[in-house]
Amino acid sequence: MKLLGTFFLFFTLFSNSTFAELPAEPSIVITHTKDKTFYEYTLNGKVLEIKVVPKFGPTYYLVPAGGSDDDFKRLTQSNLVVPKWVIFSW
C-alpha cells in the first residue's frame, strides 16, 4: 500500500511538467468577410501564415516578415509543409 501511495505522489508531482512540455496542436481559424475568407494558421500562439481567398481574384498568403508581429509579406504560394503520410493503400 505504501508503494501505491508513493507512485501516486510521484505521478501527481511530475505529470503536469511532462504534459506542459508537449507541443501544442496547430490551429486554423476561419474568418469570413463580405469579400474575402481568411484562414489563419497558428502554432503555440504564433501566426505561421494567413491564407486569403478573395471572392474575385487569385488566392494569396500573408507570412510574418520576421520583424514585428504586424509586418507581413505577401506570397503567391504557401510556405507551410504539411505531412502527407499514406496510412493505407490498395
Structural commentary:
Helices cover 21% and strands 36% of the residues. With 90 residues, the protein is α+β, with helices and mostly antiparallel strands. It has a 5-stranded antiparallel sheet with strand order 1-2-3-4-5, with no helix packed on it. The chain is globular. The mean pLDDT is 79.
Could you write a compact summary of the structure shown?
The chain has 90 residues and is an alpha+beta fold. It is built from 1 helix and 5 strands, in the order αβββββ. It has a domain of 57 residues: S-adenosyl-L-methionine-dependent methyltransferases (Single Sheet).
Q: How much is the average pLDDT? A: 79
* Assigned CATH superfamily of the domain at 24-80: Protein of unknown function DUF2782
CATH architecture of the domain at 24-80: Single Sheet
- Helix and strand sequence: HEEEEE
Helix content: 10-25%
Tell me the structural class. alpha+beta
Q: Could you tell me the strand content as a percent range? A: 35-45%
* End-to-end separation: 52 Å
User: What is the CATH class designation of the domain at 24-80?
Assistant: Mainly Beta
| Main beta sheet strand tally, sense and closure | 5 strands, antiparallel
Strand arrangement, major sheet: 1-2-3-4-5
Question: What keyword list fits this structure?
Answer:
90 residues, alpha+beta, 36% strand
SSE map:
Layout: H1 2-20, E1 27-32, E2 36-43, E3 46-54, E4 60-64, E5 72-75
Antiparallel strand pairs: 1-2, 2-3, 3-4, 4-5
